Structure formats: structure tokens, C-alpha cells
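Service request form, structural biology core

Requester: graduate student, group of Dr. S.
Request type: structure prediction, single chain
Budget code: on file
Notes: please return the result as C-alpha cells.

Sequence provided:
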Amino acid sequence: MDETSKQLLAAVHEIRDLIRLLAEPAIAQRDKNLRSQLRRIVGSSSPKRKAVLMMDGRLTQTEIHRKSGIQKSNLSTLTKELKRADLIVGDGRQPQLRISVLPTFFDGELADE
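Core staff response, request fulfilled:
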């Protein structure tokens, strides 16, 4: 990828992030029940929170396990619970959350409830 393409891609990612930030209140209202279920399933476990925030469909469960510090068995159980709650898209091998959440989602426990 040449330098111009890299700069364009970086600009597009920045615009996407800004749009997500502006749209967050509307998205939070639309996804209120799903977000509540997500918080209930994940709880206060820091490794689970880190793992969930990595579930964007690009990483496998093995990669999420390595990067988040969550135990493999706990990640597998978490993924199954999220799938049962219809919070995961696909088969769960490369988990992707059905809803979008900001990296600060778990910081403000009651922010959107």
C-alpha cells in the first residue's frame, strides 16, 4: 500500500470514529436492552471486558485469549453465552458483537441505561 493510500485509509478511519462518537447516544437508545444483557453477562471481570471489546470479527478466539488474558475455557463459555443472548454474529470462531460499543462502554456502568 503506497503512502497516499495509507493516509487516505487513516483519514477514513478517523472520520468513522468521529461519526461513531456522534451517533453513540442514538445507538445506545436503540440497543439499550442488548447493552444491558451484555453488561449482565460480562459482569465486572476485567479479562472478560477486554475480550468483549476485541470481538469485532477480525480476531479468532485464540487471538482474543492471548491479547486479553482471559482463560480459554472462560472465553469459550462467554462466547456461547453471548451467542445464546443473540449478541454475537456468526458462528463464534471469530466473534463479532451484534451491537457496537465504544472502548469506554464498561467505564460508565449506568451511562446508557
